[in-house]
Design goal:
By secondary structure, this protein is an alpha/beta fold. Helix content is about 30%, strand content about 15%. The chain is built from ten helices and eight strands. It has helices spanning about 35-40, 50-55, 60-70, 80-85, 95-105, 125-135, 155-165, 190-195, 225-240, 260-270; strands spanning about 10-15, 45-50, 75, 115, 140-145, 170-175, 210-215, 245-250. It has an eight-stranded parallel sheet with strand order 3-2-1-8-7-6-5-4. α9 packs across α10. The model is unreliable at about 1-5 and about 285-293 (pLDDT under 50).
Length: about 290
């Protein structure tokens, strides 16, 4: 199978495509949940498919996703936890192939898949990871996210990068620094929960493939992110100039703010070669054909 070549070098989106708090922010006020994916895919250009971590969609659902999104949109699906979090990866090859084949009808809409390794999965299991990666279908892009602290030490990181480069596999980059940008009245519990749930890992902006997949955990006071977004915009411009395709995903403890973080980064990148205009800027709310029933 040959997947379509990406012409844009930058894709921007959130962790999910459906959130009720986006009504009147990303979506027209009063939008129905049945319309969220179609509306989302005409405002942002990619989505981090966390839904597949918890359940594999039916073939009918996958076809509906094809029908509701433009060919330029990219889904970046997380491997199911039944593959990544249930013991050695090498014993899950059959399940891995079945999952990829279920998603295959999305065709050119498939961005990189990503494998999130559990916190206890350390460099001591490198042989297991290498065995699983050797069986990955190279027709599909893949990135790996590591959480154990030993992957960020010099020896573990060097071995990981060499393995990923050998197979043309990307490395997921997670930036949790915004969570330490200070308290915000009314959002203290959201920030605490985010710190508890997200790994406390350093940012090592390394690349091991022709693409990069970034997960940015933003502070809910959008303005406080400015210095870090400036830093990321400069890095993204440099990467694109070197030929790297970037998939950038905004998370936020207060989910309402995630699309606004997307717009804040996009405005820093407008006019950069390889960065298309954000569809959100030209979407006309009064012309949306919303579900009636």
């Amino acid at each position: 199978m040959t997947l379509a070549t990406d012409h844009p070098r930058f894709y921007l989106g959130c962790a999910v495509w459906a959130h009720a708090s986006w009504s009147g922010v990303l979506f027209p006020r009063g939008s129905r949940s049945a319309d969220y994916l179609r509306l989302y895919s005409r405002r942002l250009t990619t989505v981090e498919g966390n839904t597949t971590f918890y359940a594999i969609p039916s073939a009918e659902t996958v076809q509906r996703w094809v029908d509701e999104t433009p060919p330029s949109f990219r889904f970046c699906f997380k491997l199911p936890r039944d593959i990544s979090h249930q013991g050695p990866l090498a014993g899950r090859r059959r399940e891995t192939d079945a999952f990829v084949q279920r998603m295959a009808p999305l065709g050119e809409r498939l961005g990189p898949f990503f494998l999130q390794l559990p916190p206890g999965y350390s460099p001591h299991q490198m042989n297991d990871l290498a065995s699983w990666l050797s069986a990955w279908n190279p027709a599909y892009r893949l990135a790996v996210e590591v959480r154990h602290p030993e992957w960020y030490a010099p020896q573990g990181e060097a071995a990981l990068m060499a393995l990923l480069e050998e197979h043309g596999i990307g490395r997921v980059l997670m930036d949790v620094r915004p969570l330490d940008l200070g308290p915000l009245p009314g959002a203290e519990e959201d920030l605490r929960r985010a710190r508890d749930n997200k790994p406390d890992v350093p940012l090592h902006p390394l690349r091991s493939a022709s693409f990069a997949l970034v997960r940015y955990i933003g502070h809910p006071d959008v303005g406080r992110n400015d210095p870090l977004l400036d830093e990321w915009a400069a890095r993204v411009r440099a990467w694109i100039a070197e030929g790297t395709t970037v998939f950038f995903f905004m998370h936020c403890p207060v989910e309402r703010e995630s699309p606004l973080l997307c717009r804040a980064l996009q405005r820093r990148l407008d006019g950069t070669p390889g960065v298309p205009p954000l569809p959100w800027e030209s979407a006309r709310d009064d012309s949306e054909q919303l579900t009636l029933f």
